């Protein structure tokens, strides 16, 4: 099987992961080209946002329909057919995760490509074009050792969550852009956790969650319950991604259980 870049993806157990990484990388390159060609005149404009989102979406959907024609596809606000709920395989994609950050010329946007199969996330790739990095489950990265200091928690820069006092008193908040970028910050060791209260799109979270699970990070709802994908709402509320050694404390503190103490 050959890609549009002239590369061959072997049909092995990791083929889906390799495909996800290739597509995320290529879509990220496309977004950078669009951003660069737009210049300063279009930065901050709805025209740039719409054009970039559409071009990345068209590239990813066309590629997946060509290479995985029998698989279902979920793209936020664009493609969502009820039949996906009965599908065995579903590609969960966000072509431009963090469009506000993208049009502002900020680096904290992402491209998210994940595969859900038979109830589990089987593959994922997260491109951070502003940093020139791409992470994929086909070759999981090693999370760096934690730096000394207080726990740092990535949160939305525009809608920071209302955190329980026990959490607020024991962590340092790090406001960031897109959902994928925040999960990427945990993977890169920039922060110790990512916490959200408001529902986030499965399309923005699935790739990062697949990667986090692959490298042994903790992923759950605030109460420790398992995350479920390919739901009717296609949303996840009260999301927690953190280093495994801090999971017990975060779950207790976020869910209001007694005995959480200090981290």
TrEMBL record:
Q: Does the keyword Ligase apply?
A: no
Keyword Cytoplasm appears in the UniProt entry: no
> What terms describe the molecular function in GO for this protein?
3'(2'),5'-bisphosphate nucleotidase activity; metal ion binding
Biological process (GO), any one: 3'-phosphoadenosine 5'-phosphosulfate metabolic process
> Which cofactors are named for this entry?
Mg(2+)
Which positions in this protein are listed as binding Mg(2+)?
Answer: 94, 96-97
Q: What UniProt keywords are attached to this protein's entry?
A: Magnesium, Metal-binding
Protein name, per record: Inositol monophosphatase
Question: Lineage of the native species?
Answer: Bacteria, Bacillati, Actinomycetota, Actinomycetes, Micrococcales
């Amino acid at each position: 099987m050959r890609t549009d870049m002239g590369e061959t993806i072997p049909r092995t157990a990791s083929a889906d992961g390799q495909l996800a990484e290739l597509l995320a990388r290529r879509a990220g390159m496309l977004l950078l080209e669009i951003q660069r060609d737009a210049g300063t005149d279009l930065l901050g404009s709805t025209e740039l946002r719409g054009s970039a989102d559409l071009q990345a979406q068209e590239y990813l959907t066309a590629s997946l329909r060509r290479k995985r024609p029998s698989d279902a596809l979920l793209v936020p606000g664009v493609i969502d057919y009820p039949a996906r709920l009965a599908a065995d395989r579903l590609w969960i994609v966000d072509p431009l995760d963090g469009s506000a950050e993208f049009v502002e010329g900020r680096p904290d946007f992402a491209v998210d490509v994940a595969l859900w199969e038979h109830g589990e996330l089987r593959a994922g790739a997260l491109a951070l074009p502003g940093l020139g990095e791409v992470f994929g489950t086909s070759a999981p990265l090693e999370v760096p050792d934690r730096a000394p200091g207080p726990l740092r928690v990535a949160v939305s820069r525009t809608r920071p969550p209302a955190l329980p006092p026990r959490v607020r008193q024991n962590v340092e908040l790090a406001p960031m852009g897109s959902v994928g970028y925040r999960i990427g910050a945990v993977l890169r060791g920039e922060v110790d956790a990512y916490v959200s209260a408001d529902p986030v799109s499965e399309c923005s979270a699935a790739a990062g969650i697949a990667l986090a699970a692959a490298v042994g990070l903790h992923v759950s709802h605030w109460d420790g319950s398992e995350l479920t994908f390919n739901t009717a709402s296609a949303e996840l509320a009260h999301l927690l991604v953190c280093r495994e050694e801090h999971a017990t404390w975060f779950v207790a503190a976020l869910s209001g259980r007694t005995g959480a103490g200090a981290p």
